[in-house]
Amino acid sequence: MTSLIHSFLAVLLFAAPALAEEGGEVALNDANCSISVKKSDLFSRGTTLRVEGAQGTHDAVALDGDVVVRAGATVKDVVAMRGNVTVEAGARVLGKVVALGGNVRVAEGAILEGDVSALGGEVYAAPGAKLQGEKNELSLRVNGKDPVQLFMGQLFGGKGFAHCKLRVIED
Asked: In tens digits, what is the pLDDT along the chain, a chain of 171 residues?
C-alpha cells in the first residue's frame, strides 16, 4: 500500500497544474512518451482490449481504453491507463491488476493471484471472487475532480497522447 500512496503523490504532483487551470485544461507542450511492450503482450490504444481464453498472453495493457479478461483466459499482468479492468468469472490473473484513472471489477469465480490496485478509482470484487494478494484503492476529489483522472486525461488525450511511441521488445 505504501508504494501505491507514493505513486499517487507523484501523480498528484504532476497533476497539480491541471487542477489550477480553469476546467482542468492544460496543454502538454512538447510531451513525448515511450511505451515498451513485449512481443507476447496484448496492447491497445483507445479501444477495449479483450483477452480471450485461447490466447497465451503474457501481459495485457490498454492506454485510454478498458481491459476485459474473459472466462477461461489466463494472463500475467493487466494494466489499464485511463480505463477500467474487468476480470470475468473463470478468468485468472497470475500477477498484478492495475487501473490508473479507472475501476477494477472482479466477478464471482475469477482468480487474482497478485495485488489489485485502482489509483483514481475503486476495486469492486463480487462475493466469491478470489483475491489472493492485497487490494489497494485510492481516489481523491479536489474541487470535485479526481487529480489522477485529470492527469491521465492530459497525458493520454490530445497532443500528449499523439506523441506516444510504441516499442516492441523481446520477451
From this structure: 445 444 544 544 444 444 444 444 444 444 556 666 666 778 888 899 999 987 666 889 888 889 999 999 999 999 998 899 999 999 999 999 999 888 999 999 999 999 999 988 899 999 999 999 999 988 777 777 766 666 666 665 554 455 556 556 665
Helix, coil or strand: residue 5: helix
Closest among 31, 60, 28, 66 to 43, alpha carbons compared: 60
Cell numbers at 92, concatenated: 485468472
Give, in degrees to the nearest 5, the angle at Cα 104 between 106 and 20: 170
Residue in this structure with the C-alpha cell 492485497, named with its chain if needed: 134
**H or E stretch including 28?**
none
Q: Dmax of the chain from CA atoms?
A: 47
Q: Is 80 left (phi over 0), alpha (psi -120 to 50) or beta?
A: beta
Q: Is the model's pTM score more than 0.85?
A: no
